[in-house]
Amino acid sequence: MTAHQLYIHVAWTTRDRRPMIDPPTSVFLSQYFRRTAAREHADIVALAILRTHVHMLLRTTPRIDLPRLVQVFKGGSSYAASRLPGNVLGLRWALEYSATTVGPKQLADVIRYIEGRAMRHPGEAVEDQAGTGRE
User: 35 FRET partner, CA 20 to 30 A, in 54, 60, 61, 98?
Assistant: First the structure.
């Protein structure tokens, strides 16, 4: 990473906000998003994957092509996750997404906000194999 960094809070939902993300899909998405971010010269600082939506805090260089990066996250993950063995839910994302830049003074608050999503939406938490709801 260069000395100049940009922090962006990105969020998007599943199509029609249907609960399409089960535990195996959540694990796959976490790995997919992190690999994709690294390949695109970005870092995921915080990530929350719920049954109907995703929140992500990215750190990247200011010269990012954000619409292309989000398309890579959404399009690639939808294609790959829908083809996972045993995935009966499929995975389709809504067309829209939200992106908000985050200043250095707000970083800690945004990280807490993202990490607290499962508690804020308890019915949408994706339980892992141990039942903790954590990735």
Answer: 98
Residue 107's identity, in one-letter code, is L
Distance of alpha carbon 112 from alpha carbon 101, whole angstroms: 16
Residue 107 phi, psi (nearest 5) = -55, -50
Name the nearest CA neighbour of 6 among 53, 65, 54, 55: 65
Domain segments of the chain: what residues?
Answer: 6-124
DSSP 129: T
Angle, CA 114 vertex, CA 111 and CA 119 arms, to 5°? 125
pLDDT digits (tens, 9 = 90+) for 2-11: 567 899 999 9
Q: The whole model's pTM is what?
A: 0.85
Place of tokens 């399409």: 20
> Which CATH number applies to 6-124?
3.30.70.1290
The DSSP-derived string for 23-84 is: HHHHHHHHHHHHHHHHHTTEEEEEEEEBSSEEEEEEEE-TT--HHHHHHHHHHHHHHHHTTS
